[in-house]
Amino acid sequence: MEFHLSSFRRTRFTAGALARGLIATALVAAIGWSGALYAANQSVQGAKKTDDSGFDGDAPTAILIEASSGSVLFEKNADELRAPSSMMKLMTAEVVFNAIKKGDIKLTDEYRISENAWRKGGAPSGGSTMFAAINSKVTVDDLLHGAIIQSGNDACIALAEAMAGSERIFAADFMTKRARELGLTKSTFGNSNGLPDPANKMTVRELGILARHIILDFPEFYKLFGEKEYTWNKIRQPNRNPLLNSMEGADGLKTGYTKEGGYGMVGSAVQNGTRLIVVINGLEDPDDRATEAKKMLEWGFRNFETRTLIAADQPVGYAKVFGGESRSVKLVAKTPVKVMVHKNGSDKLIARVVYNGPVRAPVEAGQKVGLVRVWRSGNIAVETPVYAADAIGTGSTVRRAIDGASELVIGMFRAGAEKL
């Protein structure tokens, strides 16, 4: 269930031609249940340190993502868990954004700055703070400004205490729960702000996924990340993101530093209609952080372009059906399958339709079946869900009996192969 493309060039491959290649190869693997299962279990182990073009990042962990498609342009130790420091405030911000969107809270709601929030995250703490006065009441809107622009630990604590009763409950029952809903399977949280805590762990990949979600799903709030300064309690503080003043199109997101995590950054910029997201962590110097983030973004804008592999609602393959009136179901992607490729046409692309099968009948039209996964030069570039194009009803008793017998035989062969 794959196609290999070397020397990817617009003159040689059209979206239609690529789709036909996927269908043909998908059909071969879909004939037997084992083919689909093997495709689902295959993976590429280990991210490359250098790209085929010779790019090498200096940060211990890094990832560069195209925002629209989610295509990964570069990664290095992207799944290594590290202390995210203040970059973790993105998760707190997302929880608040989502609560506002659902109507659970309002921007005009006022939350009290407790003594705990003041001592741990306010003026006495010596850390980043919005300088909210103890026992004062601050609106959710102002607390978001303080948390995002000023990186205020007191603002995060106040939000957490008001929404959950305590920061610990907020981390466990709000941040972790929401992270899992967003598909962030590795991230763990011990507090709301990223101050040192053994439970605070995130990967640059999951920080990138979170940043992309905020950008695409909360555009009305994302603009806060690009504001260059904010004043509270008569104290004006600049945005800590160095990209805002040093790179064209930069408008987010968050920096972070703790001794255990090092210097990190989640950054984003738009140039010529393309938005890229960079996440780095583990550097030893703040200047290196700014230089590295800018270098990676500029490299991405200079060397890549977006190409559509498969149009929306165009067939991408077939999945085997168990006990249905048809032996297989056609699969489509509801959105275009796009990937960022090198402008010089040097990429080798591999695509696989991945699903757990056979799919048991009845199958509803529009039912999610699996995904199409595209690798570029050995790294996963993009994943897009695929859905059943047509409804497949339950087959006859004879059809179900034949399928059951076939699965029994295939299962015996697979069990024997696994023992070898």
Which descriptors apply to this entry?
420 residues; 11 helices; globular; disordered N terminus
Unreliable segments of 5+ consecutive residues = 1-52
Major sheet summary line: 7 strands, mixed
Residues in helices, as a percent range:
25-40%
Tally of alpha and pi helices: 11
Query: What's the alpha carbon Rg, rounded to whole Å?
Result: 24 Å
Mean pLDDT: 84
Tell me the fraction of residues in β-strands, as a range. 25-35%
What spatial form do the alpha-carbon principal axes imply?
globular
Tell me what you see in this structure:
The protein contains eleven helices and 18 strands. By secondary structure, the chain is of the alpha+beta class. The strands form five sheets. Strands 1-15-17-18-13-12-16 form a seven-stranded mixed sheet. Strands 3-2-10-9-8 form a five-stranded antiparallel sheet, sandwiched between helices. Strand 2 and strand 3 form a beta hairpin. Helix 4 packs antiparallel against helix 6 and helix 5 crosses helix 6. The longest helix has 23 residues. The protein is globular. The N terminus is likely disordered.
